[in-house]
Amino acid sequence: MIKVVEEINLFFTLHWDSGMRGLFSFIWEILKIVIIALLIVVPIRYFLFQPFFVRGQSMEPTFENGDYLIIDEISYRFGSPQRGEVVVFKYPQNPSQRYIKRIVGLPGETVEIEAGSVIIFNREGSQILDELDYLPASIQTPGDIHLSLDEDEYFVLGDNRVSSADSRSWGPLPEENIVGRVLFRAWPFTALAKFEVPSYEGE
C-alpha cells in the first residue's frame, strides 16, 4: 500500500513539474515577444514616426477628414522644413492641440497675400507662389496680409484656403512647435500615397 502511494505521488510530481515547466516556458516566450516588440515599437512610435488622424476640412482637397497619416519626426533633426511640406505642429495658442498645415513662408522671408495670391519676398527677390502642384487653379487665397518672419518662424496655410484657421489669423508658426512632416497617407487604403515636396517655378 505504501509503495502504491509513493508511485502515485511520483506520478503527479513528475507530471506537475512537467506541466508547470511547460506553462512557465510558454509565459516566458510570450514575455520575450512583448519585450522585444516594445523595444522596437516604442522608440519608433515616440522618436521616429507617429500616426495622425486628420480632423476637419482645412486641408482639403489634399487630405480629407478621417485620413490616417504617418508623420516623420526624424527628418527635421537633420534638416529644416521646406516650402510646400505639410507639417503637424503644436498650435501656438494651445500647445495641447495638434494642427496640420502647409508651409508657404520660410524664416527670414516676408509673406504677402493680395488679390487671392501668395507673394514671397526674400533675398532672391519676389515671386507669386505657384501652387498648382497641390491646389486647383480656381482656388484663391483670401486675406490681406503683409508679414515678415523671424529666423525661427514659418508661415503656414491650410489647402482649403476659404476654411482654414492658419497663419493668416493667428500669426507665424515657431519652429519649435513643429512635430514633423507628413510622410504618407496610410488610410483609406485606396488613397495610400507617399508625399514629396512640391516644386515651385523659380526655385
Describe this structure in words.
The structure is a single chain. It contains two helices and twelve strands. By secondary structure, the chain is of the alpha+beta class. The chain folds into two domains: 50 residues; 141 residues, Umud Fragment, subunit A (Ribbon), CATH 2.10.109. Strands 1, 2, 3, 4, 9, 10, 11 and 12 form an eight-stranded antiparallel beta sheet that branches. Strands 7-6-5-8 form a four-stranded antiparallel beta sheet, with no helix packed on it.
Based on the model shown, name its key terms.
four-stranded antiparallel beta sheet; alpha+beta; Umud Fragment, subunit A; disordered N terminus; elongated; 203 residues; 12 strands; 2 domains; eight-stranded antiparallel beta sheet
